[in-house]
Structure formats: C-alpha cells, structure tokens
Batch of 2 targets.
Target 1
Amino acid sequence: MPKTILIVDDDPNIREYLETLLTDNGYETIVAENGEKALEVLAAHSPDLITLDIEMPDKTGPWFNRALQRGKTYANIPIIVITGHTGLKYVIPNAVGSLSKPFEQKELLDLVRETIGS
C-alpha cells in the first residue's frame, strides 16, 4: 500500500508540482491550501508525512503545527518544511527537515524516503 503525503501550500503551482513529483514516485497525495483546510483534510485522512509551507493566508504553517501538537492525535506525523522564506524554515522545531524553494527534486525525494520509506 503506498504511503500518503499531505501537501500544504497556498501556491497552486507548488501543490501541483509536488503532487506530480510525489505521485510519479509511488506516493499517494492529498492537498490543502492552508492550515485550516489541512486540519479538515486530516479529519478524513491519515497521512504518513506532511509537507508544509510557512507563509500562507488565513492559517499559517506555524499555526497548523501548533494545532497538530495540541491535538496529539496527529502530533507524530513527520513534517518537511518547504518554504520560500529561507529565514523562516526553522520555525517548525519538530520538522524532520527543511527545504528552501526552489529545491532539488532529489533532495526532497531522499528526505521523504529517509523519513517514511518508498
């Protein structure tokens, strides 16, 4: 059974790019355009990994992460931060990794594989 990755990013081009990249490499994907939508998606799905943007309208990456940590149900899902704001990529202290946009495909795929396997 393929591993599932929740992609949380407000940029539709980034969401589509990540969805294609990860799907082409054997993962299932679900998407959300902000932290609030991501919490709604979590109610229906249980992803193995989350890729998380930091700066998004409505509910930001840090807001989403705090909500995850408070709820405990999803607190152990690994998070990879993918952001265009290089100075903010470490604001999610429990992230398993951080990548700056633009990123290398291999770098992301290696990090995903190290974290949840193929």
Note: The CA atoms of residues 16 and 85 lie 20 Å apart.
Target 2
Amino acid sequence: MKSIANLLPEYFADVVTLANQVHGDNYLNITTLMEMYSRGIKDGINAGFVAVSDGKVVGYRLSYAAGQWPLDKWCSVSLWPVAPQHMAYFKSVAVAPELQGQGLGSTLLKASVAALRQQGALAGLAHIWQQSPGNAAQRYFSKAGAELLKVHPDRWLHLSESANYICPLCGNRCHCTAAEMALTFADIE
C-alpha cells in the first residue's frame, strides 16, 4: 500500500537514489536536496512530498514556496498568470519506473498544490522535460490544467557543465528541451 507523506530528512537518501535513477546520474545529491527541501517550507508548511510503499520511497515531488526560489533566464515572467511573489515552483518529480502511469505523480502534485495554496501561492511554474518518454511529463502537467508558456532548448546543459549531470538521453552534455508551464491554482478542484 502506498502512502503520501511530507518530505523529511529521513527520506533524503531514497529520494536522491530515485531522482538519479529516473533523471540521470548527478541530478540530485544530499546537499542540493537539503537546499530544495528548505525552499519548500514556508510558515511551517512543507510543500515537498514522498510516496512510500513498504517503507521505501517510490515517488517524490519537490516544490518551492512562492518568493523562495531564484528567477533565472528560463523564467518568462511577462507571460506568467500571476506576479512572481505569488508564483510557486515545481522543481522536480519522479515516480519509480514500475509505478509510472498509475496516477502517483498526480497524487503528489495535488498534495503539493494544497500545501502551496496554504502558503499563499496562487500558481505554480515548472520547466517540464519534453524528452520524457512519449513526452509523458508535459502530457501529465497539461492534464492537470497547466498551460504552455514557452519552450527553452538546452535547459539543463549548464548542469552538465557545472555539476557533472549525466542526462539519461544525451549523456554528459544535456541538450534536452524544457516546456515552461504554469498551473493556476484557482482552476484546480
């Protein structure tokens, strides 16, 4: 049986293992996860979640609270449906390959949206991996109600160059494309 729980340090090692399995070597480590985790907590509300089955993490959702994440050159602020101080960020999600397509990602997203709303966010932004198998990531986020704002080629190339990220498709020089998408929380039941 799978249960959803807040992301806590006791789950960090399993989250790092799952993230690197799904997204590629050096995608995540304990140090970067600790920073991401802290960006998701605001007013005592944690917007990070894990799915646990038989004591093992089988999915996670890392989200940043509005106002607690850096804008960068891949943020098309003028296209956003809300002001930056009200925009949360969906940083990363992964589901164990054997459980993908069963709604676990959507369950984690709903838990995160509920927490982000409690923190005061009005919408959430994501940079979706377009090269996911069958573009499943963009389909999943579109199904949740997100709208495509802009496409960003070579979105993760800087991680290959600065953090030795190994993309599961491109190898040590990631040329994958990101779909910048916004999910307005008022539209979610």
Note: The chain is about 30% helix and 30% strand.
